[in-house]
Amino acid sequence: MEEVRLMKGNEVLAEAAIRCGCDGYFGYPITPQSEVLETLMELKPWETTGMVVLQAESEIAAINMLYGGAATGKRVMTSSSSPGISLMSEGLSYLAGAELPCVVVNVQRGGPGLGTIQPSQSDYFQATKAPGHGGFRMIVLAPFSVQEMHDFVGLAFDLAFKYRTPVMILSDGVIGQMMEKVVLGPQQPRWTDEYIAETCMDWALTGKKGRGRNIVTSVDLDPNSHERFNLKLQAKYRNIEENEVRYETVRTDDAEYLLVAYGSAARIGEKVVEMAREEGYRLGLLRPVTLYPFPTGPIEVLSRQVKGILALEMSAGQLIEDVKLASQCRVPAYHYGRTGGVVPSPGEVYEAFKAHFPK
Amino acid sequence: MKQEIIIAGFGGQGVLSMGKILAYSGVMQGLEVTWMPSYGPEMRGGTANVTVILSDRRISSPIVHEFDTAVVLNQQSMDKFEPQVKPGGILIYDPNGITRHPERKDISIYRIGATAHAAKAGNPRVFNMVVLGALIQVSPNVTLENAYKGLAKSLPERVHKTLPANEAAIRTGMELVETAQVVPGLATGEAPANAVIR
Amino acid sequence: MSEEFKVEIKPENLVYQKPALTTDATMHYCPGCSHGTVHSLIAEVIEEMGIQDSTIGVSPVGCSVFAYNYIDIDWAEAAHGRACALATAMKRLNPGKMVFTYQGDGDLAAIGTGETIHACNRGENIAIIFINNAIYGMTGGQMAPTTLVGMKTATTPEGRRVDLHGYPFKIAEMLTHLDGVSYITRQSVNNPVNVRRAKKAIRKGFEKAMAGKGTSFIEIVATCNSGWKLSPVEANRWMEEHMHPVYPLGDLKDI
What we know:
Chain A is α/β, with parallel strands linked by helices. Chain A contains 14 helices and 15 strands. In chain A, helix 3 runs parallel beside helix 5 and helix 11 crosses helix 14. A seven-stranded mixed β-sheet of chain C has the order 2-1-3-4-8-7-9, sandwiched between helices. A two-stranded antiparallel ribbon of chain C has the order 5-6. In chain C, helix 1 crosses helix 7 and helix 3 crosses helix 4. In chain C, 53% of the residues are buried. The chains are: A alpha/beta, B alpha/beta, C alpha/beta.
């Protein structure tokens, strides 16, 4: 039965984790996402589904708890905000290197350094290009509503296990702190130990009963063999790029101009489309839902149709690079962004759009 | 319809929870809603504000910089948000602690002596419900019945015994709200709900 | 091969044999290193407890990074210092499993100090095997937190100086203050008596972890003859003369 509630994005992450049968959450408090751990502790899922919830001593410990949990085939998750995600970089690299599935949420705040606790999207490069050392990728999902904060938890676990890779939900302080209506999914059962032992038999550490021992590791000192492993990873990434691109368009059918924005910036972008359409601009919005894999193809197609593109993001210009690559600079593509925790108003974005593309 | 509302005051005045109850009332009315708070250290003793949007269509930006209605509960918020009310919009304020009263001539202005009432009634905890009553009186986008439902949904069950006192405070606010200035043709408590809709 | 090295092994002369759970992989450890002996003890304990199908080991970064090649159980190889964080989640998510970490002094007492202390303080029901050889073996003999005062390493060419590097880190003593730890012991594998004692200690630690008594911490004061630039025999003697006085053997806590 559908259950409609008014909830914060952060609170709904906790609900969604429990409901999709997550086995363990390990996290460390940091604004603006501490409600995730707080909500889990309030809901006490260990008394209902048996889900483990633990406040770790650091983000470093938390991500390595994910590594340990994921190594045993369990569905594990953490959440943090930008500075904490930096501390998780090493662990993410090990998870990718050991081909382990897990879900990591980044409710972004402004940086660099300790920065601000206000919303930002300045971790785009970090999430999509280099989440850690060694040239690995993560699937990156960018929710733009509280409902998507809910829906993407289950999706992220499905993708993580499908490809045996870390999956990041890249959110920000706006979506994390905002309340909206949300339809909560039904309670899914957690995987049984028997199910894990059977379905993850060739890699998970479930005890070597009935099979040879499994080893979860990311070390391989032989360059040739390690190159073969890297090529295997790259083949996995090509597969992901072919099959997992997700995006949404708003009024692009007849668009002469294109706005590209993700997450909370896409909400602002939708309002800009409304304002522009009222004044006769045929503006459309493309919202990447997966930031990696990036919707390169759809943007390439639209770049043949429109006269110009504006990339809107709460950073000094990161998304714009992928937009220019995708559009192959066929039409002028500009960046508009605010940094340091400032959320741009729809009005100022619209003015910037008009300045670039006067009638 | 679409109503973009800012509620602003001191942390501890119940600004965020009033916004949540308003938003939940919107949910009970079948509307789309967003509730976007200011967050961080400013909550503790400093100013706090929340943007609530009620709409019968999908809401795009949860962050807006001009408002149909501003509910202002201290001077800093008056200074910040009076200029951000859309022409023809509504400003509701509690005169307690206000040293510079609103000056705009192109918006409707209402006063609610919620602090004074709560002090007199000896129950400061219902202060924000008095303000909510004033808001739904002058800008009736949610019905009183749905406001009660939103209240019950927002409060944890362990404090549901306080529901009658909170409901009474909403009714008190509806009665106590005073009209300071009405821009002709725009919203008043007697006007139909769509009077402020743009 | 000269005649004097020709030794014939007869079954009736066998006192020890290769534990069933050690694999046939050729060990990468230097001759004289304590790791091989401790690996054998762990393999014997797991075998004797009959838990080879339900034990998960966590290997560190350091010489024992490839410990997983030598004992025939499920293993994960952790990031440097993070073994106790891995083990925490493994055990909490799989309470029926035996989970242990195997870590050196750099891994456990330098970069991983935080993870070690907090796992112990939470009383995770795991066993921690701590190999203390007072040096970084794998990276080429640099100073460890446990390096003795005056001891020469690649990064203390004139010997460890207290004014520059502080004191040898007695982490086992420090951990005794944490309520989550039920068993802390310091052992060595320098002679047959101590090998047998060390095995008993490992078994006790594993049993306490499986019984849910909290964390067990088994330190093994070990040799690194390559890092110390001594022959295996000299290294054993040097350990007895210099390491054991600073890191005295025996139980530090048993509740």
